[in-house]
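subagent[fold] <- orchestrator: predict structure for attached chain, return tokens only, no commentary.
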Amino acid sequence: MTKRAFITIIVFFTCLCASAQRYVDHLDRGVLAMKTTYGNFISWRIFGEEYFDVKYNIYRDGTKINAEPLDVSNYADNSGSATSKYQVAAVVRGVEQKKSDAVTAIQQQWIEITPKHDASLTSTYVPNDACCADMDGDGELEILMKYDNQNEINGGFQKDGYHGEYTLFECLKLDGRVLWWVNCGPNMGDFQNNEQNIVGYDWDRDGRAEGLMRLCEGATIHMADGTVYTVGGANWTNYRIPAGDGQWFTYYGKEYLVYVNGQTGEPYQCIDFPLKRFESGESDLNAAWGDGYGHRASKFFFGAPYLDGRHASIFLARGIYTRHKMIAYDVD
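subagent[fold] -> orchestrator:
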């Protein structure tokens, strides 16, 4: 074998390996320092590509405090104080890389976030389910938070909500700022919040996660620039029929799959929800789903599987117990 042929083969297999690597979020180091009884505890992220020959140095107030590079992602600093600031730098094959941004030790074992709701909202919102993604591309995770509307619950889920307000979604920064939010409208509500789902992932690989939601007609997306997008258009219908005891499901009206810009909330696409309540020829909930009140048809699951090993797809599922529907989309 000639030297040129050998090099060509090496390059070929290297390209195969590189093309098979999965895309990952471009997050920051995520350094967190926390006051403890023995000083400060510091932890940080190890990136997905930092597998071989990578260790870490840690700095307090600009001075390196570890004797040898660390091969773990945490450190106990017995000499740390309440005002100490920490940075972490990767050491790749003996060469130190750029330091992370400095962080100051927090004085308790949690971070308290007070959401800065839009000034127009008058309801009491109770945090419910949540997921995280880097929605604006700054390397820090945002929270996609779902809120129960406590005033609406107390009122028995009235047809017009509480002053026109229903369940809420927010794209929330860790300092409490809200990038954009969604008033879910009357056709989304139910007593277990089964119908309200939102996730974030960088499906288009532009460095910022996109938002993905199932919404019904009448939901309104309040974008970062103040513009409001009404799902289903201006002539939507309120199908809400409260049962009086708060334990009910909605199973009328149009459903949509909404794919939005994670930083602004602007919809890229709003299409009919592909996993329908009824297939062609069906009209009876009990016959189709095994109950007659919408519970089993109102369970939804979202995900981002790498079905080809390299690109994340959008995965949707609907239904429990009697029937399951699933579909996956590639993002162009």
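orchestrator: received. Logging for downstream: The mean pLDDT is 90. The longest strand covers residues 125-133.
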